[in-house]
Amino acid sequence: MFLALRELRFARARFTLMGGVVALIAVLMVLLSGLSSGLVNDGVSGLKNLPVTAFAFDEGTKTDAAFSRSVVDTAQMDAWKARPGVAEAEPFGNVLVNARSSRGVPIDLALFGVTPGSFLAPVAAEGGGLAAPDGIVVSASATDAGLRVGDTVTLDRIGTRLTVVGVTADQYTFGHVDVAFVPLDTWRRIHAGAGPDDQVRPETLTEATAVALKAEDKTTLDLAAGDKAAGTSALTLAASFAASPGYTAETSTLNLIQVFLYAISALVVGAFFTVWTIQRKHELAVLRAMGASKPYMLRDGLFQALVVLLGATAAGVLIGVGLGALISGGAMPFLLEASAVAVASALLVALGLVGAAAAIVRVAAVDPLAALGGHR
Amino acid sequence: MNHTGTTTSPSTTDPGGPGERSGLALSGVTLRLGDGDSLVTALDAVDLAVRPGEFVAVVGPSGAGKSSLLAVAGALTTPDEGTVTIDGRDIGAMSEAERAAHRRHHIGFVFQTGNLLPALTVLDQLRLVTHLTRGADLARREPRELLEEVGMAHKADRRPHQLSGGERQRVGIARALMTTPSLLLVDEPTAALDRARSHEVVSLLARETKRSAVATVMVTHDHDVLAHCDRIVEMTDGRLSDQTAPA
Ligand SMILES: Nc1ncnc2c1ncn2[C@@H]1O[C@H](COP(=O)(O)OP(=O)(O)OP(=O)(O)O)[C@@H](O)[C@H]1O
Ligand SMILES: [Mg+2]
Q: Smallest Cβ distance to A289: which of B101, B103, B128?
């Protein structure tokens, strides 16, 4: 480490330049990570924040449209209720609606139909919980769109009027739309497209989108066996995220960009250390002639790379977090998660080291004979 | 101040220790370079013995095999035939890692233009040797004291690019002497120096050879400096011939 540190100081301009590139990549990684978490949160926080283990959709429903297409009936719900290990099994309804608030603000809502008083019922931080047929509890994020307790919301086309009776503490969004919890019976009428005075077929009043399941403590549900008994296709909560609109497309795009960034960073670091090693070939030969062992020289080189990578990544993450703090107030869905940033930084350093190592192994191939006879 | 005192202190079992000094001995050393059709016999059945404290100059035309002689004597490579022993140890029987260890513990190299590391100050060039040989039981020199001895203490904090050619060589010599080696190998130390500097550098080598009781082999094209040497050998086409009296 004696030589490595002194070289860092001596060639600081070159190392700063390379470190600067790595730092910029780290900034980008943090911003992407924040955007990624933000989008995921915006897409599925409504599901994530439910106390649900799994959703059982109608048998054969395609995952990417499960929340909009699936319809389950009472028999399926009862079958799940009877399964071992199931603590709770409740009907869950989901439908996306366009509406207009009493202040004239157009607003899109994901209506989650739940039975008031059931384990799915939301806890209101402000106002009250679900009770009245036309009362809804909206996500905390809906207040940004101008909804307040006491406001009424009129659904487009069918004209159903709902009143905001409560607001949750956490953010509940689904497919980038604010969630409004609505009593299941009201949800069933809305889902059937029935206005306040319309008649509906009686069987629609027993339907729901899926059976929301909660496992007993410390048990894993046997979803396959339950599906067989109930005639459903169950997805764990995490797997059901993919059924949220746009979720898969968004996350895979962002993941691809991140993979490219890791690769670019490893290549930049590898290219730098390749040039750095070749430039010092004569010096390295002198060191070898002086008897420096190969492990010593490899260790020295890797240590040098590690110092630069750690420094650059730390600087980049700090700048990224600072920028993120500025962004997160605005319209962009942005959420910095310490764990995601830590994983991204560790990967950046680790892959950078791999790139550097690929270049530094050349050190071992330097022939000490080249030190003799001046400059050849 | 007599520095040879430390080098002859009782030897220990550690292979890195000072050990018993008996100098350098090459016998029947043949080295072939290149491959296939372009095989060159760089050294041809060379015999050479250098005692501790002896300063031997190797002269000869370009391409005669002088650098090859240093490479073999310095355990940078192993000969195709013959044996090379340094302080009684056969380097032909050593692995590559063992040869590297032998070089850093027992052999000092002085290269053509000093070949100092650009990132290090003069003092750090010497401290690097201490660092490289950490853990070995060696009679190491104190860097500042050694710099004083070669007349470079006043520029201890300079970097190589801030030194003249002669100063670089003096630092290179000090660096080579850090571990009180048994063998000092010097390749054309005066190639880039004027006459006055050349004499300074070579007389420094002669003085240190005696003071440290090191077996010194110096390759040179510079016939002016031969007066400082104990013995001169001439190399032609890979063969050595003795010229005992300094010119
Ligand atoms: N790597 C090599 N491959 C093949 N032949 C080599 C190699 N290195 C040196 N030679 C040849 O070996 C012979 C001895 O070379 P060496 O470098 O020892 O000569 P030298 O006496 O040091 O010459 P100079 O005075 O020019 O430094 C020369 O004929 C040279 O061409
Ligand atoms: Mg030569």
A: B103
Determine the Cα angle at A265 with ends A264 and A268, to 5°: 85
Residue A208 DSSP symbol: B
- Contact with chain A for residue B149, Cβ under 8 A: no
Instruction: Output the pLDDT for position B145.
Output: 93
Task: Using alpha carbons, select from A263, A200, A211, A199 the residue that is nearest to residue A235.
Answer: A211
Domains of chain B, earliest start first: 24-244 (3.40.50.300)
* CA of residue B219 to ligand 2 center, whole Å: 8
**Residue in chain B lying closest to A10 (CA):** B119
Over the stretch B170-221, which tens digit does the pLDDT of each residue have? Answer: 999 999 999 999 999 999 898 888 898 899 999 999 999 999 899 999 999 8
Our CA angle for B21, B27, B29, nearest 5°, is 120
pLDDT higher than 60, residue B10: no
DSSP assigned state of A192? T
The finding on whether B36 has its CB within 6 A of some atom of ligand 1 is no
> pLDDT for A347-366, tens place per residue?
999 999 999 999 999 888 89
Q: Which of A300, A289, A279 is nearest to A367 (CA)?
A: A289
Looking at this protein, which amino acid is placed at residue A216? E
B238 Cβ inside 6 Å of ligand 1: no
Chain B residues in contact with A283 by the CB 8 A cut-off are 115, 117-118
Q: Name the residue among B218, B134, B234 with its Cα closest to residue B245.
A: B234
Chain B residue closest in CA terms to A11: B119
Alpha-helical segments (H) within A49-107 = 66-69, 74-81
Calculate the average pLDDT of chain A: 91
Which tokens in the block code for residue B245?
């009296």
**Considering the entire predicted model, what is its pTM?**
0.81
Taking residues A45-61, report their average pLDDT: 92
Residue having the nearest C-alpha atom to atom 14 of ligand 1: B65
Centroid of ligand 2 to alpha carbon of B187 (angstroms): 7
* A102-119 as b/e: b if 16+ CB within 10 A: eeeeebebbbbbbbbeee
Closest CA to B173 of B222, B125, B221: B125
Query: What ipTM is given for this predicted complex?
Result: 0.87
